[in-house]
Amino acid sequence: MTEILTTHAGSLPRSPELIAANAARPVGEDGLTPEPTDEFREVLAQAVVDVVAKQKEIGISIPNDGEYGHLMGSAVNYGSWWSYIFDRVSGLEITGQDHISAEPVRSAPGDVRLTSFPDRRDWTIFADAYQDPTSGITTGEQPTFPAATGPIAYSETGRELVAQDITNFRAALEQVGYDRGYLAALSPGSGSRIVDDHYGDADAFLDAWVEVMRPEYEAIAAAGLTVQIDDPSIAENFDQINPEPSIEDYLEFTRKRVDAVNRALVNVPTEQTRFHLCWGSWHGPHTTDIEFRHLAPLLLEIDAKYYSFEAANVRHEHEWTVWQDVELPEDKVIVPGIVSHATNVVEHPDLVAQRLERFARIVGPERVIGSTDCGLGGRIHPQIAWAKLASLVEGAKIASTRL
């Protein structure tokens, strides 16, 4: 029997103790980086051990640190996968300007540009629902976003923080009894979505982010861990372009972000790389998401062994058929989302098995790892999140037996 392995997309629920300890840290003079304390470091190290042990107890095959080093000061947080990097990069500054509600930017054929967050097409089509606090739609509390006001670089603080992540996670792996794991890191394309008040050129700003992120990727890989590149910009950007671009223009725009990932990964072994693609993770209609069939061939151009993508939520579950038409190279593995962060309903293990079997019958069970659509931490209640992971593991066992 070929066992179908299990993992998840990254973020896991933080413990109340970790959230409280993080929220209690004093903020430094730059307004971005909270001051470290010995007490906080101790709480964080123990929390990483606990979350790795919880994954082992449930039966997750390939764990991570829950992204606990990507800190959250509250139980609900949709943006820590991105905002964590603000602590690690020099050249960023809180300017006092509200970039989130900036004037809308308009695109044109051959000149694709991202608009402001409130001008996203899904948000404007369903404006009444988004503005109704009883609708169930939530994007989480938005952090204060900095702007690049000078040359950006991966800072000494960044090197210390990624080293702390690695040390905590490797200690937890050894203590709990895992022989492998992964750490998540931001993509250059996603980093470059903050406001640029220095470079004045989108391509130059993207190039700068390639140089920023490379040291983090290399540090994780050098520690013998797998690097997961978190990159919603590949798919989510499509909703943030007004008016809607042609598929051809969007893919040309996006290929630059794919190239940026590959350049940042130049010194990281392919077998130690996995790439996570998602459509943004907020709890909303998502009617303006680009179809996966347009992105799958481009996804395979990324220099990774493992490809993680949403496949469980109701906007994208049907797209498992894409792999009937797109040939997966023999040395690659798909990591589809089999349980979703977008619903509080816990998927039945038999449904999990059915979803896994669809992929396994196309590419082979040895080239499928069951995962989550996106991070569960900060998006659904911890009790539900852990129940979903338990169902994922049980369903993978059923599918392995059937196959």
Automatic annotation (TrEMBL):
Its EC number is 2.1.1.14. The keyword Methyltransferase applies. GO terms for molecular function: 5-methyltetrahydropteroyltriglutamate-homocysteine S-methyltransferase activity; zinc ion binding. SUPFAM superfamilies: UROD/MetE-like. GO terms for biological process: methionine biosynthetic process; methylation. It is an enzyme of class 2 (transferase). Keywords: Methyltransferase, Transferase. It comes from the Bacteria. The keyword Ribonucleoprotein does not apply. Residues 208-397 form the Cobalamin-independent methionine synthase MetE C-terminal/archaeal domain. This is 5-methyltetrahydropteroyltriglutamate--homocysteine methyltransferase.
